[in-house]
Amino acid sequence: MSSHQPISLQTLRQKLPLIAPSMLKCDFGNLQRDVQLLEQAGAELLHLDVMDGHFVPNLSYGPMVIERLRECTALPFDAHLMISDPAKYLDEYIRVGCDAITFHIEAVPDPVELLRRIRSAGCGAGLALNPGTPAAAVEAAVGECDLLLVMSVEPGFGGQKFQPQVLPKVHQLREMFGPEVLLSIDGGIGPKTIAEAAQAGVEVFVAGSSVFDEPCYETAMRTMRELALSARSSG
Ligand code: DX5
Ligand code: ZN
Questions:
Q1: Is 146 a catalytic residue?
Q2: I need a labelling partner for 124 at 20 to 30 A (CA). Which of 5, 35, 117, 177 fits?
Q3: Which of 27, 91, 186, 213 is an active site residue?
Q4: 77 beta partners
Q5: Neighbours of 89 (CB within 10 A)
Q6: Is 155's C-beta closer than 6 angstroms to any atom of ligand 1?
Q7: pLDDT tens per residue, range 55-67
Q8: C-alpha distances in angstroms, 152 versus 124, 133, 189, 196, 218?
Q9: Hey, which of 151, 160, 217 would you mutate to test ligand 1's pocket, going by the most ligand atoms within 8 Å of its Cβ?
């Protein structure tokens, strides 16, 4: 069991908008160094992309790697579980010290019991929606989750093109879930796309290529955060 105490997602509210680096595009040969660089660059949340080769056509990593990452940093972890059976593996992600656990509505169409299990472990409960999944699919989760993750690409791979047609869903989810829930977006976010997502009401921006393909993580994250801030105030 990790000695890390889960950090409430609500504590991140004061720091919005947030850029959450996606630990899929990182340097897996230098994970510890990358985490240190992200901390120095001002990251407040790490997004951990877990893929099972079944729910998505790609494999990444699981609890063993997260357990070692946990020893490198106290930053909050949001595990984005792109896996077919999150209920089966949930306890492992709690044990290794994830702060929030996000699973897909397409994998668990009746999500309430699992969301409650996550919350009762003291973790933030997140629900993700693929680009083609309507907001109505998660209606049963109103009042039951802390974070909604709108996918702006088909999950599975980094470096894909942003799909702006998902943006109206952000507004619909805010209407349904109210002000408490954190609204996040994942896929193709970068300096050219972050402003429209911020105007649509996104608060947490998952960013893979637009952080890790840049020479300076601090500059990349600060630039995007400033773009999100000014889009929000002009929107
Ligand atoms: C895609 C993952 C994303 C991905 C984002 O399935 O969930 O988190 O790594 O990468 P970019 O920002 O490059 O689209
Ligand atoms: Zn992700």
A1: no
A2: 35
A3: 186
A4: 46
A5: 18
A6: yes
A7: 999 999 999 999 9
A8: 22, 11, 8, 12, 24
A9: 160
| Residue 34 near residue 2, CB atoms below 8 Å | no
Query: What is the rounded average pLDDT for all residues in the chain?
Result: 97
Q: What is the pLDDT of residues 167-194, one digit of tens each?
A: 999 999 999 999 999 999 999 999 999 9
> Helices 86-95 and 112-120 meet at what angle, rounded to 10?
10
Locate the ligand 1 atom nearest the alpha carbon of residue 162 and give its number. Answer: 14
Catalytic residue among 34, 49, 78, 99: 49
CA of residue 215 to ligand 1 center, whole Å = 18
Question: pLDDT by residue (tens digit) across 140-159?
Answer: 999 999 999 999 999 999 99
Domains of the chain, CATH where assigned: 12-234 (3.20.20.70)
Q: How far is the CA of 56 from the centre of ligand 1 (A)?
A: 12
pLDDT at position 234 = 80
